Automatic annotation (TrEMBL):
It comes from Acromyrmex charruanus. PROSITE patterns: MFS, SUGAR_TRANSPORT_1. This is S22A4 protein. The chain crosses the membrane at residues 166-189, 201-224, 230-249, 320-341, 353-373, 385-404, 410-430, 471-490. GO terms for molecular function: transmembrane transporter activity. Its main location: membrane. Residues 1-17 form the signal peptide. The lineage of its organism: Eukaryota, Metazoa, Ecdysozoa, Arthropoda, Hexapoda. It is found in: Membrane. Residues 75-495 form the Major facilitator superfamily (MFS) profile domain. The gene is Slc22a4_1. It holds the Pfam family Sugar_tr.
Length: 530
């Protein structure tokens, strides 16, 4: 039950992160011809539409139209137009959809950047918010940040839906992302710290699947409401109920123990015993403690041999430096392609809502497949093959002619998204195992930042498509193939104990002798950076 409530908040996080895709998405529009119609009383496809504007690649221009003859009388016909063109100064929009494009008239190429800027602002807000969210989570608790961030996101999101202009919209887009930045990590950590040691890898896979479920529900709701203001209210409104989370979700036991709050820990264990229908005895309480908390190493068990600053240690080790550079590129590639393919899905041929839902659905099997492959064939072949296959599928889709066998194109696109989701899932676990304890947190932070750079750049792919429609897929495919080749330089870490020092990290892969770890599930949780 507790895990279910955490999962619901993570589903909301997915909707928060991707809702702007539908809020800023393209809407069908055409030039208004005031000589032939009144904007308040017209149809989107009048009988004279094909003769009203020039055609570009077989499509009626949305930004230029033909001048109407001066001597035309009454209702326009196809013969009412001349061959002289002029720029449009007003537009008629598809009445079945309402985004900020038709709200504030962001038509034609000159205004396209205003739509793509929203996604970049979203990712910048998340990056800045993570800095503060981590501190609050460690200082005041996982449940506090989970409750506070989710509830405040609800308030901010509802205000966002009442934006009166583009600038107010951008401000609240940033605030929404800033506030919600810590929800996924807090919920993920809280869920993992509440699970038994043996179930953590599989638990993390379930949590990642809940995030994908949030994306699926977002696509379904967006196809239902088709109004950006209503969509924001549907997505952010339920977040207000987060104020009741403290009534159903306990604080992390590990966090409470780190703060020496043993009395509260005992209350939680007693509550867990009652919820499981067990008699509250010392033996029962000790059982829950053994399931929830692993034995921690004492200081004497850790090898502390280098007190230099992390950057100094990295620069003095060519092995670690090369790994960091390659990891950084792989994380940037992951962030750019993972978010870029989701964003680009609404621009593909066919129904954009169905496309988005299908692209989200393939993430669920991707997480389970990567979990199994990482445990049986290793991290290195899983990561490299996932990158290479993702690139191959993206590039192969370019050879399917436009308008021919659309299902084949969509299948290849979905396969590419499945593989990049596998790579993203594997990359976090692999990176944590490649670096020593003395540098792990710092270097993971650098890699995470590179992923944010990639995700911040991904909204601009629609501008690239204006230059050449195939350019986004060429970029996805080539970057993924390069990352797959570069990842081959990593040593395999399956069955290896986590390195504590730079020297131990450098020795990974140099010896044929495998150092067996006590339990695979004691490794860092397998997850995605959201």
């Amino acid at each position: 039950m507790i895990f279910a409530f955490i999962g619901i908040t993570l589903m909301l996080t997915a909707a928060f992160a991707f809702s702007y895709m539908f809020i800023t998405s393209e809407v069908k529009y055409r030039c208004s011809v005031p000589e032939c119609e009144h904007a308040e009383n017209t149809t989107f496809e009048p009988p004279w539409l094909n003769a009203s504007a020039p055609k570009i690649n077989g499509v009626i221009s949305r930004c230029t139209r033909y001048v109407v003859q001066n001597d035309h009388l009454g209702t326009c016909t196809e013969a009412s137009f001349t061959n002289v063109t002029r720029d449009c100064d007003s537009w008629i929009y598809d009445p079945n959809e309402y985004t900020i494009l038709n709200e504030w008239g962001f038509t034609c190429d000159d205004n396209q950047w205003k739509l793509t800027l929203v996604g970049t602002i979203q990712n910048i807000g998340q990056t800045v918010g993570l800095i503060f969210a981590g501190y609050i989570s460690d200082r005041y608790g996982r449940r506090v940040i989970l409750t506070m961030a989710t509830a405040l996101s609800g308030v901010s999101g509802l205000i966002h839906s009442f934006s009166v202009n583009y600038y107010m919209f951008l401000v609240f887009q940033f605030l929404n992302a800033f506030i919600a930045a810590g929800i996924y990590n807090a919920g993920f950590i809280l869920g993992m710290e509440m699970m038994g040691v043996k179930n953590r890898v599989y638990g993390s896979t379930i949590i990642s699947s809940m995030y994908a479920m949030g994306e699926i529900l977002l696509g379904l709701f967006a196809s239902w409401v088709r109004s950006w203001r209503m969509l924001l209210r549907v997505v952010y409104g339920p977040a207000l109920l987060a104020i009741f989370l403290p009534l159903v979700i306990p604080e992390s036991v590990r966090w409470l123990l780190s703060k020496d709050k043993h009395e509260e820990v005992n209350k939680i264990y007693h509550k867990m015993a009652r919820m499981n229908g067990l008699q509250v005895t010392d033996e029962t309480i000790n059982t829950f403690k053994e399931l929830s908390v692993t034995k921690t190493k004492t200081k004497s068990e850790l090898v502390v041999s280098d007190e230099r600053k992390p950057i100094v240690q990295v620069l003095h080790s060519s092995v670690i430096l090369i790994r960091l550079l390659v990891c950084s590129f792989c994380w940037l590639t992951n962030g750019f392609i993972y978010y870029g393919m989701s964003l680009n899905s609404v621009s593909l041929a066919g129904d954009k809502y169905i496309n988005f839902v299908l692209i989200a659905i393939v993430e669920i099997p991707a997480y389970y497949i990567s979990c199994v492959l990482n445990n049986y064939i290793g991290r290195k072949p899983t990561l490299s093959s996932a990158f290479l296959l993702s690139g191959a599928f993206c590039l192969a889709s370019l050879f399917i002619p436009a308008g021919v066998w659309n299902y084949g194109f969509l299948f290849l696109y979905m396969a590419g998204k499945l593989c990049i989701a596998m790579a993203f899932s594997t990359m976090y676990l692999f990176t944590a195992e490649l670096f020593p304890t003395t540098l792990r947190n710092s270097l993971l932070g650098i890699c995470d930042m590179m992923s944010r750079v990639g995700s911040s750049l991904s909204p601009q792919i629609s501008l690239l498509a204006r230059i050449m429609p195939s350019l986004p897929l060429i970029l996805f495919g080539s970057m993924s193939m390069i990352a797959g080749i570069l990842s081959l330089i990593f040593p395999e870490t399956l069955g290896m104990k986590l390195p504590d020092t730079v020297l131990e990290a450098e020795e990974i892969g140099k010896s044929n002798k495998t150092r067996k770890i006590p339990d695979l599930n004691t490794l860092p949780y397998q997850t995605n950076i959201r």
